[in-house]
Amino acid sequence: MAGRKRHSAEDIVRKLRRADELTAAGKTGEEIAAEIGVSTATLYNWRRQYGGVDTDAAKELKELRDGRDYQRTQIATVEVAAQYPRAFPVAPVQCVLVEIGGELFAIG
What CATH number belongs to 1-53? Predict the structure, then answer.
């Protein structure tokens, strides 16, 4: 099985533009996916996430999502530290988790 390849936001937008050109030329989804080197599911997901976005906006969107994932990891670490204080030699952090617009934020 081939390893996963992480595509940059610029690569995704470039490949989506190429996919749009191929669609206009009458190619099927499977043919388009094969030509740009991704699966049909990946092509579908990219169109759903990045459709109609230019490269700068796509890069910013990807950076925001990466930052959100980092914040979730940090929140999970704080929650585990609070549940298992002996596993973490530092003093536990007192904070309140607040959900705003589907995002979790630690306040305190």
Answer: 1.10.10.10
Neighbours of 27 (CB within 10 A): 15
Cα 1 to Cα 4, 96: the distances in Å are 9, 43
Q: What is the pLDDT of residues 34-90, one digit of tens each?
A: 999 999 999 998 888 877 667 677 777 777 777 777 777 777 777 776 666 666 665
Domain map (residue ranges) of the chain: 1-53, 68-108
Q: Is the pTM of this model over 0.85?
A: no
Rounded Cα distance, 36 and 73, in Å: 33
Q: How far apart are CA 46 and CA 8, in angstroms?
A: 12
How does pLDDT run across 3-44, given as a tens digit for each residue?
677 888 788 888 988 998 898 999 999 999 999 999 999 999
3-state percent breakdown (helix, strand, coil) of the chain, nearest 5: 60, 10, 30
